[in-house]
Request: fold
Amino acid sequence: MKILFLKAEETHDLRHSVLRPNQPRTAVVYSGDEIESSFHLGVKFENQVIAVSTYHLESSPLFPNTERAYRLRGMAVDPKFRRQKFAERMFLFAEAELQKRGCDLLWFHAREVAFPFYEKLNCLYASEMFDIEGIGPHKTMYKRIPAR
Ligand SMILES: CC(C)(COP(=O)(O)OP(=O)(O)OC[C@H]1O[C@@H](n2cnc3c(N)ncnc32)[C@H](O)[C@@H]1OP(=O)(O)O)[C@@H](O)C(=O)NCCC(=O)NCCS
Reply:
C-alpha cells in the first residue's frame, strides 16, 4: 500500500460520502485546497480513492508560539477499509512531509469518534469539547513536529 499525493478534486468523493453526506457537494471544497503550500494525501485500491487527508498552512490563535503551523482537514477512510492502518500510515507520512516543509505544529478539529485514533498517534488536546453544527462534538488537537 502506497501513500500518494492527490489532487484536491480526488479527495471530494470520499470527503462527501464519509464526512459531509448530508451537505451539498460544494461543502467538500475547502478554502485553501488549491493553494501551493497545501497538499493532499491518499490511498488508492483498484484505482478507487479509499483514504484521504489534507494539510493546509494555517495558524491558530490557540498556538501563538508557533512559527509554521499546518492544519489537518478531511481525514477519511472508506468504511470498507477501516482498521487496516491506512489513516495511520497517511498521518505518519504527513508528519515526515511536514517536517521537510519546516512545519513545527500540526493542529485540527478532531471529531469525538476519532479521538482514540488521534490519541494512538500521540496527539494532544488543546480545547474543551465544542459543537460544529451539522457534524457534532469536536476538540482541537495538535501534535508538535520536531525540526529535522
Ligand atoms: C478515524 C479514521 C480516519 C481512522 O481510519 P482507519 O484507517 O480505520 O484507522 P487505522 O486503521 O489507521 O487505526 C490506527 C489505530 O487507531 C485506533 N483506532 C482507529 N479507529 C478506531 C476506532 N474506531 N475506535 C478505537 N480506536 C481506533 C486504533 O488504535 C488503531 O489501531 P488498531 O486497529 O491496531 O487497534 C476512520 O475511522 C474514519 O474515516 N472515520 C470517519 C471520519 C472521521 O471521523 N474522520 C476524522 C475526522 S477528525
Q: What stands out?
A: Residues 4-144 form a domain with the Aminopeptidase fold (CATH 3.40.630.30). The chain has one domain: 4-144.
